[in-house]
Amino acid sequence: MRRISRITVAGAATASLALALSACGGTSTSSGSDSDGDKGLAIAYDVGGKGDQSFNDAAYAGLEQAKKEFGYETADVEPTDGETDADKEQRLVSLAKQGHNPVVGVGYAYAAAIKSAAEKYPDTTFGIVDDATIESKNVADLVFNEEQASYLAGVAAAKSTKTDTVGFVGGVDIPLIHKFQAGFAQGVKDTDPKVKVLSQYLTQTAEEGGFSSPDKGKTAAEGQIEKKADVVYAAAGLSGQGVIEAAAAKKIWAIGVDSDQYKQEALAKYKDYILTSATKDVAKAVYNLAKSVEDGKPETGIVRGDLKSGEVGLSDSNPKFADDAELQAAIKTAKEKIISGEIKVKSS
């Protein structure tokens, strides 16, 4: 079905706005078959950009699915170093002016920019991943119960450790990442109270590189491994690649995050040491928002993915994980109890 809220722009305006986009972050577009000149889904990446093998790449997968199914023109725009909220807002406004709908900011850092851009373009649907603070009739807050998937990761870690010590590496010390840590630690302790959980955050702010510095992740993981951790879980974006590298070097288990990192081409040489990944289906959330706009019934308000909806969970691509009957039974039991409400997973 055709979208009912459309914005058309003249070719000259589009050209000038493309220049504006290039000034506030790199962009790539893909032409489709929207004959009336209107455009579809556009995403603006979080810190780390496309190629992080995690959060941003999941959003891109949703964009690719929408482009393939709906045959329209899409755009994806990279962040820039040291950018301000005003820079982010300019990026989103430029995409909306060009006729993209919906426009999605990937990551909580886009909250202020999304709020402002949505006020200026009330006929465009905006989405933001990992923020639930915006109250606007044309904004969808795409959020997840990451703590639930992290709880299951904790169960897996507790059942897999041989040293009774596991580690958690968080990218930035913020409430969002606290959810991952809290769920993981609870899952470990509920499974085996004697297992010790080592936790470390790489930076206090994203600007310091907590989500974009594999070297920081590697150093943190090496420190935990020296303290006998033999399973390390990272919720650190691109920095998590360093955690996985460190684990593989010492032949211990790593647990990935957001995407199924066992399947990531850039991490292929480490995959035998990626036990599982605590996933959240950002791709599905982004695609679903695009589909809702295409169907003329745009999603708005808080749109939450959890274990019950299947939008968070654990990947089972590694045969050593999938074929471990005892481990799978423990995870299945924990999942059922979370969904039923018998287990209340902490988020902080």
UniProtKB/TrEMBL annotation:
InterPro entries xrefs: BMP_lipoprotein, Peripla_BP_I, PnrA-like
Swiss-Prot/TrEMBL keywords: Cell membrane, Lipoprotein, Membrane, Signal
Subcellular localization: Cell membrane
Segments forming domain ABC transporter substrate-binding protein PnrA-like: 46-347
Recorded GO CC terms: plasma membrane
Main location class: membrane
Membrane topology: Lipid-anchor
Source organism, top-level taxon: Bacteria
UniProt key word Metal-binding: no
Family: Belongs to the BMP lipoprotein family.
Name of protein: BMP family ABC transporter substrate-binding protein
